[in-house]
Amino acid sequence: MQFNQVLENVTTYEAGKPIELVVREFGVNPKDVIKLASNENPYGTSPKVVERIQELAKNMFIYPDDSMFELKEALANKFDLTSKHVIIGSGSDQILEYCVHAKCEKDSKILMAKTTFAMYEIYGKQTGATIIKTEDDQHNLEQFSRLYKEHGADVIFLCLPNNPLGECLDKDDVYAFLETVDKETLVVVDGAYQEYAAFKDEKKRINAKDLIANFPNAIYLGTFSKAYALGGMRVGYGIAQPEIINTLYKLRAPFNITTLTLAAAIEALKDEEFVTACIAKNFEEMTRYEDYANSRGFEYIPSYTNFITIKFGDKFVSKTVAQKLLERGVIVRDLTGYGQNAIRITIGRNEQNTKVFEQLDEVLEKLK
User: In sequence order, which residues have a C-beta less than 8 Å from that of residue 188 and are 6 or more positions away?
Assistant: First the structure.
């Protein structure tokens, strides 16, 4: 059977391995598995969200409010905008898909960092667009500028902070770059981890209202999957000028968000105290990983997220390390597929991190 030829160059996204796989393949007790591969909030969801979902579970047979009025209003209030500036998606990656399909076709060009969220390239290749990447793994705006002047771009992706590496550009540097971008180029600022970056360093904070006021060709993406701990609910959003939002709505299928997802996101926005407490604990625990890497001579990338990337250089092979940890019930993300001899570890709870250090030491000792 013949399919669209552009799909021949599209790779399938590889999600983090689930707990069920480790239990099934390696016989590990489910209670002993530590899943630190998908950057979920290890402290779980706000109790207020859980209570609300339990109340509404009986309404699962009813279609959700397709206008998403209450959630859009809540987000508009959060960002001091109107609901006309907001679009809701099944995870922020659905909004990414809308952006690419709204702007790109066979001869289009997309500019991104060499090592960044894989779905940018996957969605781009689905349209037949040409993918242009910087030479450096991390975001290098000088290279972005040079490549943009040389090739142009229909879409530019800036992941701030960057997944899977964890670095983050300063807002002022981002704005200086955006001043040089043509207004016909759609700039996608992926802020999936912005809550973490803004907490750690105010210079990294991208204010969505300010961004789209200064750059009407930009769209800010946020998610409830990380700091708000709703990864299992799949809900994200885009903030942009109404012209962009109205265009993206032409790509949206009806009822793309569930009744319970809407309720969970609305309730999660009401409990910012919970979110802030989780973020504070995240960075407290991250210092333990930094100390661990330093004490063992490993390089790491200073992170503005809820994960850390540890590089092994020529000392160990990351794919082997990740596999050995997996067999012991510790799930981390091997970055070999991104061209990195490194592992990405979500910052877990205190007791989880202690076990990671113990298991990692044992694995590395056996691999010497």
Answer: 96, 99, 155, 156, 157, 158, 218, 219, 221
What is the DSSP code (8-state) at residue 11?
P
Sign of the torsion formed by the C-alpha atoms of 17, 23, 28 and 31: positive
Contacts 24+ apart (CB under 8 A), 100-103: 100/124, 100/126, 100/127, 100/129, 100/155, 101/126, 101/127, 101/251, 102/186, 102/247, 102/248, 102/250, 102/251, 103/154, 103/155, 103/186
Give CA–CA dist 16/35, Å, rounded: 9
Question: Which residue type occupies 264?
Answer: A
208, 160 in Cβ contact below 8 A? no
Give the whole-angstrom CA distance, residue 35 versus residue 30. 10
DSSP 254-292: TT-S-HHHHHHHHHHHT-HHHHHHHHHHHHHHHHHHHHH
The arithmetic mean of pLDDT across residues 312-316, rounded, is 93
What CA–CA distance (Å, rounded) separates 129 from 253? 23
Give phi and psi for 345, each to the nearest 5: -120, 120
Mean pLDDT across the chain, nearest whole number?
Answer: 94
Q: How is residue 85 annotated by DSSP?
A: G
Please give the pLDDT value at position 164: 95
Q: How far apart are CA 326 and CA 222, in angstroms?
A: 30
